[in-house]
Specification:
By secondary structure, this protein is of the alpha/beta class. It is built from twelve helices and nine strands. Helix content is about 35%, strand content about 10%. It has a nine-stranded mixed β-sheet with strand order 1-2-3-4-5-6-7-9-8, covered by helices on one side. The N and C termini lie far apart (about 55 Å).
């Protein structure tokens, strides 16, 4: 006598767990049965990492964005793996390829666009229409675009430490809480970046975590403005590539005027691998590691400066 079939909800859970454990075998799982294919398709495309063809799905072309974009929640464009021209839409050009692909992702929560100069083609209109909460981009053109109308509202041009009272705007990005500024040439932290700093603070009022890659040479004035004018800010992360850990050697380069602020975390991380762990919930990423550091500081009564964080939180936890 045949064993009774499993309840559908249990069967579905089994296949979803199998997919999570071996995402590379997703194509094989799709072939089990039609109903399994229907169950797994949305899950399989929740996270799309376009990087070196080593992650599922490989060869993620513009045509696949049209077909599966509605399922994507977390998207990382780490290399030029997309078909740069679309056969069905010849008007699509390389400069607009990212915005074009994002137009098929109405449910996108996390965006990491690491294509160098192409990232700067992202504009405010494309991003503000998405339910994004976390972005990692080269924002030069975006910040410049946001800064133009704010510049016209300023009644004076001296260095500002506070948001002028005369500036009141409707923020475009109230949902975004985590923002990584990818390119070190972004002037938002420089003396010349005053208008862009204002634009960021006003258009991202709920940002809790800001990260800066290749941050050496940042000016204390720009950092202080963020620390003082982002009301929800919990962490300002300064990082470089390496195994996930604190970078106490690099912390010595933090401007002296802000070294005592407990929100500054200087660290290393593996960009692609740690990003994927974070969105899949399988390990620490840059954001969650910084949160762990800050929790440890609060528990130990940390007083600074930043390079005084001589022990990683994981090390101190394992020694207890």
């Amino acid at each position: 006598m045949a064993d009774p079939p499993l309840p559908p909800e249990i069967e579905r859970l089994i296949f979803e767990l199998a997919l999570q454990a071996q995402i590379q075998d997703a194509a094989n799982l799709f072939l089990v049965a039609h109903h399994v294919h229907e169950w797994l398709l949305p899950k399989a495309f929740e996270v799309v990492l376009v990087y070196n063809q080593r992650h599922f799905p490989t060869q993620f072309t513009t045509e696949k964005f049209r077909r599966y974009g509605k399922f994507i929640r977390h998207l990382c464009l780490a290399e030029r793996q997309l078909a740069m021209y679309d056969e069905d839409d010849p008007s699509v050009c390389p400069d607009g390829i990212i915005s074009y692909c994002l137009s098929f992702c109405p449910n996108l929560l996390t965006l990491a666009a690491w294509w160098g100069a192409l990232d700067s083609r992202l504009d405010a209109n494309h991003l503000s229409q998405l339910p994004l909460t976390c972005v990692s981009i080269d924002p030069r053109t975006l910040f410049q675009e946001l800064a133009v109308p704010i510049s016209s509202l300023l009644t004076s041009r001296p260095p500002l430490s506070r948001i002028p009272k005369e500036i009141r705007i409707e923020p475009l990005f109230s949902r975004i809480t985590h923002f990584e500024i990818l390119n070190e040439q972004t002037s938002i932290f420089s003396t010349q970046g005053q208008d862009q700093r204002l634009a960021f603070v006003l258009h991202f009022p709920n940002v809790t975590h800001v990260a800066l890659y290749r941050w050496r040479g940042i000016e204390a004035e720009g950092v202080s403005f963020f620390l003082e004018n982002c009301p929800m800010l919990k962490a300002l992360i300064l990082w470089k590539h390496g195994s996930l850990e604190l970078d106490n050697e690099g912390a010595s380069a933090v401007p002296a005027a802000v070294k005592g602020d407990e929100r500054i975390v200087v660290m290393r991380c593996l960009r692609v691998d740690d990003w994927e762990k974070g969105v899949r919930g399988t390990g620490f990423d840059m954001w969650s590691f910084a949160d762990m550091v800050l929790d440890e500081r609060r528990l130990t009564g940390w007083k600074g400066p930043v390079e005084a964080s001589s022990q990683d939180p994981e090390d101190s936890a394992s020694s207890e």
